[in-house]
Design brief:
The chain is α+β, with helices and mostly antiparallel strands. It is built from 14 helices and 34 strands. Helix 1 packs across helix 2.
Length: 684
Amino acid sequence: MYFRRTFNLDKQPLQANLRISADDYYKLYVNGRFVGQGPAQGYPFHYPYNEWDLMEYVTAGNNTVAVHVYYQGHVNRAYNSGDLRMGMIAELSTEQGIVLASDPSWKYMIAGQYGTSGTIGYHTQFLEDIDQRLCIRDWHMPDYSDTSWAFAAVKEDADYMLVPQPTPALDVYRKAPASVIELEAGRYLIDFGQELTGQFEPKACGKPGQQVELRFGEELDGERYVRYEMRCNCRYVETWTLSGQEDTLEPYEYKAFRYVEVIGPAGVIRPESFTAIVRHYPLDEKACRFESEDRMLKQIWDMCKLGVQLCAQENYVDCPSREKGQFLGDNTIIGHTHMYISGDLRLFRKAIRDFALSVQVCPGLLAVAPGNFMQEIADFSLQWPMQLLNYYRHSADLEFLKEMHPVAEGILTYFRKYAREDGLLENVKEKWNLVDWPDNLQDGYDFPLTRPVSDGCHNVINAFYYGCIRTVQEIRDILNVAYEDELPALKQSFAAAFYRSQERLFADSTSSDHCSLHANIFPLLFDMASAESVESIVSLIARKKLGCGVYMSYFLLKALAVHGKTELIYELILCEDERSWVNMVREGATSCFEAWGKDQKWNTSLCHGWASSPIPVLIEDIIGLKPTKPGWSEIQFAPRIPQGMKDFQLGFQTLSGSIRIDYSADKLDIHAQEGISIIENKAV
């Protein structure tokens, strides 16, 4: 629906600040110009509003604020919706005080042009079959007459707790196609050169009722046509009905796509008008730069970076197509990578809080937040303290760590109810026990991961539990909170239950002798593996390589890094197996995939930020840069450059300033901004 309000300013203001929010979402126009959109999704008890500086938009005399508000209506992972809440709130302040506020003097009208042929994904979004004959032309322009519109009604008992959105609004900008091919009269193939998130905006002029079909996809079906029946369970086909005048398509929702196919009557479509309206969280391209003479390594970096850039919207999303949901476990990798590529910690901080707020629904945290969709994954909940600690190391945000500490303790309390006498967890039935995803990449993990999970005690959930306790104890150390060390006894119990001395490996469950890759990654990562077992586990990884999902590869590479196995890490990042980042590049990826290849999952998303682990691993564990003091005021520089690694340059922004690395002809130089202390260890 549309809202409008015209108001008068007796002089040009010295300041003009608009606070605005809407449920579910808004797009804001002032005096006919697009300003921005939002808010980030949130629970009603912690609902964000945006602030806009309108100085460049308002003028002395009459001004018009116009707002396009959308209610999605489904309980899904993308919106806080399905709750019959719709509306907006706004107030404009100048140096004279509040000069405009949402009240019954505002006008509204239903936007009737948005028909639909159904939803895509998991009721994630509606297809938009727009009928231009029903459009209200120029509804947002100052000279439009809204005399026929109805007056808005005030929601007297609104129970929202409004909070300032802690992150900037999305970047919204135009992108021209890389190529446009006329396949036949009235039929065009548009390639934007890479994956993007946004809308497609063409122009056309035809007879009233003539229709144009629009097909979107991440890849082609053959050489000429768009694969609109996408692998990720999205059928991106929409119908655009023309009005008889010069029409501009203005879809509301965003899609993930690279290609568009436009099919319409000859002479109607304006190919010179084709453009994409791209949207994602703001990213300063200068904040992180990586160049390498190794073309494949550079391609892997770039596709991982773009994947995370596009999965960073108002919150992180697992993929910007099928679910558009912020998954807690995905954030371990996406958040870590995003802090490096953006130099901006605010979105990760917000994500950590989003899940902390979900304790009002489940004390053990939801797997997707914010939102009304109820999903719980045990593995993901146990990673939340790890994300909190990682954020603190990058930010030095001690107050936030203190504020979030009770949530971390609450997670441990929640899981202790499943503990046996020896401290190990069993029968964690209230939450999905994931291990890895998709389930065909679990390396034969020998435990029935049914939902709810089968009775018994298995490895990965207990390894995560051990890692969670270890992380919470580190947080207690930072905050000077006294505690009794639980790790020695739990480590002993873990070994007694899962270690198989003959193989010098860890088994999948107490009732199995099968030693999967997954059962051995975490003992290596969390220092639960004895000295005698480390080499056996490393040999297992060297043999099975990336025999896991891309999500699990983050933990696999980090586990190897704990024990200095840099050569193997580098080999795995650049390996050419079917399960590899190289395989994604071979299959034409411009953003990292959900699985190692397009056909390795039944509904593979071709943009999935959880596959971006090479970026933090390269920075921290190969190039060897880590903060030794929170906030990067002091850094460790302990490079472990593999033999044969080609020349590269890396630069990125931290809270304390910029860092640059130059590697050329086996010479490694570091340049850090004044105020950053460097502890060098070039022995390795």
